[in-house]
Write a structure and sequence with these properties.
- By secondary structure, the chain is an all-beta fold.
- Helix content is 0%, strand content 59%.
- Strands 2, 4, 5, 6, 9, 10 and 11 form a seven-stranded mixed sheet that branches. Strands 1-3-8-7 form a four-stranded antiparallel sheet, with no helix packed on it.
- The chain is elongated, with a radius of gyration of 14 Å.
């Protein structure tokens, strides 16, 4: 069974920093693209940043220059370094990964989410 587990969320003051981690575990062949999403109360879930296996990245305009996505393919872990945090960054952050499971094909997996709260 494949699992994605996020960690690193918390409460921080505006202008501060947090680093989120997303670790994949279980029986799988490979991890393809990975991404971070966030969802604020009453809002839809939006993509924040994505990264390919080769390290190509893409960011939402609202976080460009402040957030950095990265991954460690040996540790099967993805990171999101968040700097210069703003109150509007407050949301539950989810990681998502396209994972190849032998016998099942490539499926989308989601983590359980981690709360990020930025106080003004």
């Amino acid at each position: 069974q494949v699992q994605l587990v996020e960690s690193g969320g918390g409460l921080v003051q505006a202008g501060g920093s947090l680093r989120l981690s997303c670790a994949a575990s279980g029986r799988f062949f490979s991890i393809n693209a990975m991404a971070w999403y966030r969802q604020a109360p009453g809002e839809q879930r939006d993509m924040v940043a994505s990264i390919t296996t080769g390290g190509s990245t893409n960011y939402a305009d609202s976080v460009k220059g402040r957030f950095t996505i990265s991954r460690d393919n040996v540790k099967n872990t993805m990171y999101l370094q968040m700097n210069s945090l703003k109150p509007e960054d407050t949301a539950v952050y989810y990681c998502k990964a396209k994972i190849l499971v032998l016998g099942s094909g490539t499926l989308d997996y989601w983590g359980q989410g981690t709360q990020v709260t930025v106080s003004s």
